[in-house]
Design brief:
The protein has one domain. By secondary structure, the protein is mostly helical. The protein contains five helices and two strands; from the N terminus they run αββαααα. It has a two-stranded antiparallel ribbon.
Length: 142
């Protein structure tokens, strides 16, 4: 596999790196959740003092979110493998567009929470699919 000079592979690799960045950002950024904590009081009295609370996505949701957040990473890993494969142009293009569609669907499902963080990776994946579509047919392609 020759990376230099193969823009589709570089684009697929960028998409994969961007999904890892989004994953790590979501899991570790301490300001994913912002809230206010108010101390309980006796009914009828004024509320107690409030403090602002910050937590990471992982701290709020627990370890159960990791498999869900790994879905885009897996999609872009498959895209990278498909892009670097020796299959026909038609096969790689169909597979790439299918993976891009699934990744965009993931972004739409999470549009009000985590979806927008994966949009740069989805756009890079779409660029990869466009490049595969424009790739010159090889002699082995039918």
């Amino acid at each position: 596999m020759k990376i230099k000079g193969n823009a589709a592979i570089v684009s697929a690799l960028m998409s994969h790196i961007l999904t890892w960045v989004a994953l790590l950002w979501l899991l570790l950024w301490p300001y994913s959740y912002r809230g206010v904590k108010t101390e309980a009081t006796v009914p009828g009295e004024l509320p107690g003092p409030s403090t602002e609370v910050h937590a990471s996505f992982l701290a709020v949701n627990g370890l159960r979110v990791i498999p869900i957040l790994l879905i885009p990473v897996a999609i872009t890993a498959i895209l990278l493998a498909v892009t670097a494969s020796k299959h026909s142009r038609k096969t790689t293009t169909i597979a790439a567009w299918t993976l891009v569609s699934v990744l965009l669907f993931f972004c739409v499902l999470g549009v009000f929470s985590i979806g927008p963080l994966y949009l740069p990776a989805a756009l890079a994946a779409a660029v990869t699919a466009f490049m595969l579509l424009r790739r010159k047919p090889e002699l082995a392609d039918h």
